[in-house]
Amino acid sequence: MRQRGVKAATQEFFNRHHVTVAQDLVGRSLVWDQVGGMIVETEAYGAIDDPACHTASRSSARAFFELNPPGTVYVYINYGLHWLLNVLAADGIVLIRAIQPMLGIEAMSVRRKQTKETSLCSGPGKLGQALALSIADHGTSLLTPDRHVLPRSPEFDADSIVADTRVGLSKAYDIPWRFLLPENPHISVAVGKAVPRQIKRRGSSDEDSIGAEGTEF
User: How far apart are CA 44 and CA 95, in angstroms?
Assistant: First the structure.
């Protein structure tokens, strides 16, 4: 996917406001160990004053954010099932929710046990499984020859990106910090279809952050 002379995103790219990074990632290509594709959906989470971010309720998340530079990979496990891919920005965390598969589709299909391309990476849990994410990826970098983000194609229309509310939250669910290509069949949730998550037991809201219930490391 990487062509000669095409430069991957640098630390300076990620060293910006989390909303700017989340929006600017859409349309760019994610390369992750010989698999990947065009990013079609992201979510931004602020490290300060955002109750939906892990840093609001978890000291380990705050420490991780403070100790690591922009471009560092942050992963956590969703409902005990799938690892989710996030990257640090200057003042927040960006969740990569979905990509349009373009590289290593066969390998991703095997990992997902799924041949339908629109089902391979159309959601953060699916994407994590397709990329074979694990705890070993926590704290690694998205600035390496094997793992990086490439520029948008010259034909990409940045005006096609739409802002919408974030998915699966019970706190700060009305903030429009989800960015996506609304007509792309690989997105996880259509525009206007995200609904707040219902808290069914006392205390469960403490685990409600970065897109869904999860455990961070």
Answer: 6
